[in-house]
Protein backbone atom coordinates (compact mmCIF):
# COMPACT_ATOMS: atom_id res chain seq x y z
CA UNK A 1 0.00 0.00 0.00
CA UNK A 2 1.49 3.33 -1.09
CA UNK A 3 1.65 6.14 1.41
CA UNK A 4 1.09 9.78 0.60
CA UNK A 5 4.16 11.89 1.32
CA UNK A 6 3.73 15.68 1.36
CA UNK A 7 5.72 17.53 -1.26
CA UNK A 8 7.82 19.64 1.11
CA UNK A 9 10.87 18.31 -0.75
CA UNK A 10 11.11 16.49 -4.09
CA UNK A 11 12.24 12.86 -4.26
CA UNK A 12 15.69 13.95 -5.48
CA UNK A 13 15.97 16.53 -2.66
CA UNK A 14 15.01 13.86 -0.09
CA UNK A 15 17.69 11.58 -1.53
CA UNK A 16 20.26 14.39 -1.36
CA UNK A 17 19.33 15.08 2.28
CA UNK A 18 19.59 11.37 3.09
CA UNK A 19 23.00 11.01 1.48
CA UNK A 20 24.50 14.24 2.86
CA UNK A 21 23.19 14.07 6.41
CA UNK A 22 25.93 13.60 8.99
CA UNK A 23 23.53 13.04 11.90
CA UNK A 24 22.61 9.37 12.19
CA UNK A 25 19.00 9.83 13.27
CA UNK A 26 18.27 12.45 10.58
CA UNK A 27 19.93 10.23 7.96
CA UNK A 28 17.66 7.27 8.78
CA UNK A 29 14.57 9.51 8.89
CA UNK A 30 15.36 11.02 5.47
CA UNK A 31 16.04 7.54 4.16
CA UNK A 32 12.59 6.37 5.30
CA UNK A 33 10.78 9.38 3.83
CA UNK A 34 12.78 9.11 0.57
CA UNK A 35 11.87 5.42 0.18
CA UNK A 36 8.21 6.17 0.92
CA UNK A 37 8.23 9.05 -1.58
CA UNK A 38 9.60 6.62 -4.20
CA UNK A 39 6.50 4.47 -3.70
CA UNK A 40 7.75 1.80 -1.28
CA UNK A 41 5.31 0.53 1.34
CA UNK A 42 5.47 1.10 5.09
CA UNK A 43 6.23 -2.55 5.90
CA UNK A 44 9.04 -2.69 3.33
CA UNK A 45 10.62 0.55 4.59
CA UNK A 46 10.30 -0.64 8.20
CA UNK A 47 12.01 -3.93 7.31
CA UNK A 48 14.82 -2.26 5.35
CA UNK A 49 15.61 0.25 8.12
CA UNK A 50 14.86 -1.95 11.12
CA UNK A 51 12.00 0.24 12.31
CA UNK A 52 8.61 -0.87 13.58
CA UNK A 53 5.89 -0.25 10.96
CA UNK A 54 4.01 1.93 13.47
CA UNK A 55 7.10 4.15 13.86
CA UNK A 56 7.32 4.64 10.08
CA UNK A 57 3.63 5.64 10.07
CA UNK A 58 4.26 8.19 12.83
CA UNK A 59 7.38 9.49 11.08
CA UNK A 60 5.61 10.10 7.75
CA UNK A 61 2.64 11.69 9.54
CA UNK A 62 5.04 14.02 11.37
CA UNK A 63 6.84 14.87 8.11
CA UNK A 64 3.56 15.53 6.29
CA UNK A 65 2.43 18.02 8.96
CA UNK A 66 5.70 19.76 9.92
CA UNK A 67 8.03 19.17 6.98
CA UNK A 68 11.78 18.47 7.04
CA UNK A 69 12.23 20.28 10.36
CA UNK A 70 10.43 17.39 12.06
CA UNK A 71 13.10 14.88 11.04
CA UNK A 72 16.20 14.07 13.06
CA UNK A 73 16.86 13.85 16.76
CA UNK A 74 14.39 16.30 18.28
CA UNK A 75 15.52 15.65 21.85
CA UNK A 76 18.26 18.24 21.55
CA UNK A 77 17.32 21.51 23.16
CA UNK A 78 14.70 19.91 25.40
CA UNK A 79 16.47 20.99 28.59
CA UNK A 80 15.99 24.18 30.52
CA UNK A 81 18.53 26.96 30.67
CA UNK A 82 20.95 26.79 33.59
CA UNK A 83 19.62 28.36 36.78
CA UNK A 84 22.49 27.69 39.15
CA UNK A 85 25.65 27.35 37.08
CA UNK A 86 25.08 30.37 34.87
CA UNK A 87 27.94 32.10 33.09
CA UNK A 88 27.72 34.98 35.57
CA UNK A 89 28.07 32.66 38.58
CA UNK A 90 30.94 30.75 36.99
CA UNK A 91 32.84 33.95 36.21
CA UNK A 92 32.35 35.21 39.77
CA UNK A 93 33.48 31.84 41.10
CA UNK A 94 36.66 31.96 39.01
CA UNK A 95 37.41 35.35 40.61
CA UNK A 96 36.63 34.07 44.12
CA UNK A 97 38.88 31.03 43.73
CA UNK A 98 41.92 33.28 43.48
CA UNK A 99 41.74 33.57 47.26
CA UNK A 100 41.47 30.68 49.74
CA UNK A 101 38.09 29.91 51.31
CA UNK A 102 37.09 31.61 54.56
CA UNK A 103 38.50 28.76 56.66
CA UNK A 104 41.90 29.17 54.99
CA UNK A 105 42.14 25.62 53.67
CA UNK A 106 41.62 24.33 50.13
CA UNK A 107 38.52 24.72 47.98
CA UNK A 108 36.32 21.64 47.74
CA UNK A 109 33.07 20.87 45.94
CA UNK A 110 30.94 21.31 49.08
CA UNK A 111 32.65 24.64 49.89
CA UNK A 112 32.02 25.89 46.36
CA UNK A 113 28.38 24.73 46.61
CA UNK A 114 27.99 26.73 49.85
CA UNK A 115 29.52 29.78 48.21
CA UNK A 116 27.15 29.45 45.22
CA UNK A 117 24.16 29.08 47.55
CA UNK A 118 25.14 32.26 49.43
CA UNK A 119 25.70 34.15 46.17
CA UNK A 120 22.29 33.14 44.79
CA UNK A 121 20.47 33.63 48.09
CA UNK A 122 19.55 29.97 48.37
CA UNK A 123 19.49 27.97 51.56
CA UNK A 124 21.47 25.10 50.05
CA UNK A 125 23.02 23.92 46.80
CA UNK A 126 23.84 20.23 46.42
CA UNK A 127 27.60 19.59 46.85
CA UNK A 128 27.75 17.94 43.42
CA UNK A 129 26.98 21.32 41.84
CA UNK A 130 30.18 22.59 43.47
CA UNK A 131 32.22 19.90 41.78
CA UNK A 132 30.38 20.53 38.51
CA UNK A 133 31.23 24.23 38.75
CA UNK A 134 34.90 23.48 39.40
CA UNK A 135 35.00 21.22 36.35
CA UNK A 136 33.17 23.76 34.17
CA UNK A 137 35.76 26.44 34.89
CA UNK A 138 38.53 23.84 34.49
CA UNK A 139 39.75 24.31 38.05
CA UNK A 140 42.06 21.59 39.28
CA UNK A 141 42.35 21.02 43.00
CA UNK A 142 45.84 19.72 43.34
CA UNK A 143 47.81 19.07 46.47
CA UNK A 144 51.49 18.31 46.07
CA UNK A 145 52.56 14.76 46.80
CA UNK A 146 54.36 14.33 50.09
CA UNK A 147 58.08 14.24 49.73
CA UNK A 148 60.14 11.29 50.84
CA UNK A 149 60.55 11.29 54.65
CA UNK A 150 64.35 11.37 54.36
CA UNK A 151 64.09 14.57 52.34
CA UNK A 152 62.37 16.37 55.23
CA UNK A 153 64.29 18.85 57.33
CA UNK A 154 64.72 18.70 61.11
CA UNK A 155 61.77 21.04 61.75
CA UNK A 156 59.50 18.89 59.55
CA UNK A 157 60.62 15.78 61.49
CA UNK A 158 59.71 17.46 64.76
CA UNK A 159 56.31 18.54 63.42
CA UNK A 160 55.61 15.00 62.28
CA UNK A 161 56.60 13.60 65.67
CA UNK A 162 54.25 16.02 67.43
CA UNK A 163 51.26 15.45 65.12
CA UNK A 164 51.52 11.74 64.41
CA UNK A 165 49.88 9.15 66.60
CA UNK A 166 52.08 6.45 68.02
CA UNK A 167 51.15 2.84 67.77
CA UNK A 168 50.25 1.27 71.05
CA UNK A 169 52.45 -1.57 72.14
CA UNK A 170 50.01 -4.42 72.57
CA UNK A 171 51.07 -7.48 74.42
CA UNK A 172 51.11 -10.47 72.17
CA UNK A 173 49.26 -13.36 73.70
CA UNK A 174 50.13 -16.89 72.82
CA UNK A 175 47.58 -18.91 70.91
CA UNK A 176 46.90 -22.55 71.79
CA UNK A 177 48.78 -23.66 68.66
CA UNK A 178 51.90 -21.70 69.63
CA UNK A 179 51.84 -23.14 73.17
CA UNK A 180 51.83 -26.70 71.88
CA UNK A 181 54.99 -26.07 69.89
CA UNK A 182 56.80 -24.44 72.77
CA UNK A 183 56.95 -27.35 75.17
CA UNK A 184 55.56 -30.68 76.31
CA UNK A 185 52.02 -30.88 77.51
CA UNK A 186 50.69 -33.31 79.97
CA UNK A 187 47.39 -34.92 79.56
CA UNK A 188 45.42 -37.11 81.83
CA UNK A 189 43.74 -40.17 80.54
CA UNK A 190 40.71 -41.44 82.27
CA UNK A 191 40.22 -44.99 82.09
Describe the 3D structure:
- The protein has helices at 11-20, 24-37, 42-49, 53-66, 87-96, 109-120, 127-136, 154-163, 176-182.
- It has 191 residues and is mainly α.
- Helix 1 (11-20) packs antiparallel against helix 2 (24-37).
- Helices cover 50% and strands 0% of the residues.
- The radius of gyration is 36 Å and the shape is elongated.
Task: Please name the defining characteristics of this protein.
191 residues, mainly alpha, single chain, 0% strand
Give the topology.
Blueprint lengths: L10 H10 L3 H14 L4 H8 L3 H14 L20 H10 L12 H12 L6 H10 L17 H10 L12 H7 L9
Whole-number mean pLDDT: 83
Question: How large a portion of the residues is in β-strands, by DSSP E?
Answer: under 5%
Order of helices and strands: HHHHHHHHH
Terminus-to-terminus distance: 102 Å
Number of strands: 0
Largest sheet: none
Helix fraction by DSSP (H/I, runs of at least 4)? 40-55%
Taking Cα atoms only, what radius of gyration do you get, to the nearest Å?
36 Å
Amino acid sequence: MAVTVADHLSVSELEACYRSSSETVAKSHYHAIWLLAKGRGIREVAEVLGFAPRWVELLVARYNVDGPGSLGDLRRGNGRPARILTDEVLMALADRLREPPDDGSLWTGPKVASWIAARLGLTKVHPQRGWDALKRIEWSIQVPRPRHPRAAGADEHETLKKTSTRRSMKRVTATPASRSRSGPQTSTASG
